[in-house]
What does this fold into?
Amino acid sequence: MPQSSKIAKNTLIMYVRMFVMLLIGLYTSRVVLNTLGVSNYGIYNVVGGVVGMFSIISSSLSSSISRYVTFEIGHGDLERLKDIFSSSLMAQVAMAVAMFVLMEIVGVWFLNYKMNIPVERLGAANVVMHCSIVSFVLGLLNTPFSAEIIAYEHFGIFAYLTLAESIMKLLVVFLLGISPYDKLETYAFLLLMVTIIIQCFYLLYCRKHFAECRTLKKFNKSLFKEMTGFAGWSFFGNASWTLNSQGVDILINLFFGVTLNAARGIANQVNSIVQGFVSNFMVTMNPQITKSYAQGDYEYLHKLVFSGAKYSFFLMLLFSLPICLETKQILTLWLKTVPDYAVIFVRLTLISTMIFVLGTTLTTAQSSTGKMKKMAIGTSLITFLEFPFVYVCFKLGMSAVSCYVVHIIVYLVLQFVKVHIVKDYIHITYGSFIEAVMLRVVAVVACSLPLPVLVCHLMDESIFRLLVVTLVSALSTAACVFYVGMKESERGYVTLYIKTKFRK
It folds into this structure.
């Protein structure tokens, strides 16, 4: 199968899964928020942020495992692949034990003595903490197995398992409604059970289908040293990202309380749903980027990097534009109870993510080279600025909105820093990236906005306006992507594809 067709097929599988998960996720979030209440929902999100802070330590090695597995599949060296899997699994087990002990000591202490949690809900918050820690540790153990599935591009089973997870979370919602026990504690415990079941399926599938997962070889110290060397430089980037997400969650809790944590949780959930459509596209493309570098096919690599960045942005714009214009009405219809600041948080989160996705293929390409020192140092120097800037803004009495403004500015600068770093490794230029990606996305945004904004301004708020704005936004964005965002060759390919389908 041609690589472009393979990407298209895998993307389609992931999108079918995404649409089903979207429906389940929307319903689940509404019921959970209304069942738990704004305060409990905020507690759940901020406790998750505390646990997430510890991913600074673990996420670097996890990303290293994914890179090495994918790279060796591209090379076709089964014996080295067995060494990588065995060493990475043993390393993750050791990491899991260490993280469990650390989080149970430091994390629980921070929750009980530093967080802004209502006294009467502190016991429930501790239950959430313990369940979140166990779930996090299980995720660490699962990393080598999920890396195998993605690297081999078995996206069908990946879609089935994540879909099954969503269905089980839907069942959790129904059980939550009839449970006689504390709602927050019950929710945390049941989600942990879902995590355990899914992780078991990952393990069983990999052992059945991938030879390197059936037997463990002796721990390879030299290989592990090589992987941790790669991970060491990734640590800085992962640390800054975690600090700017979970760290800011904690700052919001300390300065504004759990209600704004609930608003941020809603914003992150909307963003994760929208970003999921982009992530599915990137998940199917990332292995191809790594493999094309491993095979020395730079022409195809450049095509993937540029088109991946551009179309990731276009997908985000397609979904984000109507949501940003009709945020208040969408949240009201969806949740009924809309936390304060949720509307503005959603809009700014989506804008920041649109900027962020422009650089995802650049990061993947740099990761494929295995040379992460410059990328780690360069990006970290920029992104580490966000957390102290946000702290200063809050300390000066600025609103919680200021954290998003800082985030957008920092990550806009970051994309140009990434181009500067990666260009010498994969042989691209500033001009090629600006021409192929930046100019086209700016032009598409400028052309897409006027018509849906005008419709939104001229019509009174109603369900009918929501439908009209969504339709006009979709048509406006699609037309601008086709005529402005695409190259002539890309338009020709799309036109030919459509004509072929209609002839059938």
Observations:
- The CA atoms of residues 54 and 102 lie 9 Å apart.
